[in-house]
Amino acid sequence: MKGRRHTDDFSAHCKRFLDYTDSFKDVPDAAPLRLKVEHTFKVYEHAKFIVSSLKDSISPELGRAAVLAALYHDCGRFPQFSKYRTFLDAKSVNHAVLSFQTMRDRDFLQEETSRVRKLAQCAVLLHNRHRLSPMLESDARFVTDVVRDADKLDIFRIMVGHLTSALPERDAVLLHVKDDPERWSSNIAEDVLAGRISSYSDLRYVNDFRLLLGAWMYELRFDATKKALAESGLMAEVLSQLPSDEALRPAVEKLKAMLEECGIAGRRS
Ligand SMILES: [Fe+2]
Asked: 58, 88, 182, 222: least buried by Cβ within 10 Å?
């Protein structure tokens, strides 16, 4: 069926994205940018997985907007790093705004319907917001949540790889927090216990980062994401790397219980 094939075919967009990233290949010390290409395709695959798990309950247009938003969600990372040499938004620009502007100005979604285009652009713009407005229209919320769930799944993979290693791009990935295996911040542990998501700017130690990654489980929306996270073993690994400190135990126990629930939710999907 022609319409259906069009709905599921993203090959022209994948090529467009790769051609775009290729234009940054001469940026000096571009290892972090190569990681962003890899990250993008993982997020894209996760988004397709989430959408396919829901295909009987959503329109093809909604699914297409979500997958395209995932593919282009971090396109602003390339000009951000090229100009400012950092992925720290606070020291450069909001990369989600730059991604939105880039996909709009380069007309990446030129052949899509205006509904798909608007939904995808909205999700890209909002994908890194600390909180989403409860007033957000339900389709826009859905598309944004697919990107946010898919993005988190891959950030778990990247972080687990970098929390214990000393790769050259480690600093950029860990956003310059201090690597002291026994230290953690009590306000971040309190956020975990209160069900709050800490801000990146409050993180001081690598263990704070581990706690934040754990707290992200509060925000996962889709059972498919929870299932993938529980089955990957990544979260279990992150939690096992936290220090066995009596004062930290309640927060760690809470995160372990949440991971258990992710596995249960996953078995429903
Ligand atoms: Fe992003």
From this structure: 182
Q: For the segment 199-211, what is each residue's pLDDT rounded down to a tens digit?
A: 888 989 989 989 9
Global confidence as pTM? 0.87
CA 168 to chain CA centroid, Å, is 22
Ligand 1 centroid to residue 151 C-alpha, Å: 7
Distance 20 CA to ligand 1 centre (A): 17
159 C-alpha to ligand 1 centroid (Å): 14
Local structure of 28: helix, strand or coil: coil
The CATH 1.10.3210 portion of the chain extends over 2-149
Q: Hey, CA dihedral for 52, 132, 172, 204, is it positive or negative?
A: negative
Please give the distance, rounded to the nearest whole angstrom, from the Cα atom of residue 122 to the centre of ligand 1: 13
Task: Quote the ligand 1 centre to 246 CA distance (angstroms).
Answer: 35
Distance, CA of 158 to CA of 156 (rounded, Å): 6
The answer on pLDDT for 11 being more than 80 is yes
Q: Does domain 2-149 have CATH number 1.10.3210?
A: yes
